Predict the structure.
Amino acid sequence: VQLQASGGGLVQAGDSLRLSCVASGRTFSVYRMSWFRQAPGKEREFVSVISSDGGRTHYRDSVKGRFNISRDNAENMVYLQMNNLVPEDTAVYYCAASSLPGLRTSPGAYSYWGHGTQVTVSS
């Protein structure tokens, strides 16, 4: 599966952004989908994951209550709604797909990655 993320930009603290990720292929609905992010000089970190049917989600603690992940299997899309952004959210955001069971948070569990979209939050 090929992934393409979009929707990043430069915003001010407190603003919102909605990231989108479109997947190619006819088997999108079998994949667990995640968002990761990587800030300059830091390791890639888990942000959120959604189950294949969209019924279960999981978030890193720092984004709970601010971010919401969703998916539309009919459109091969996964979204990350980001509200009340803070400068610490500044990073390149990547969508990723995993065929492994469970809601995985390790980058190694994901076989497919998009190219990333830059999110910059100014204070």
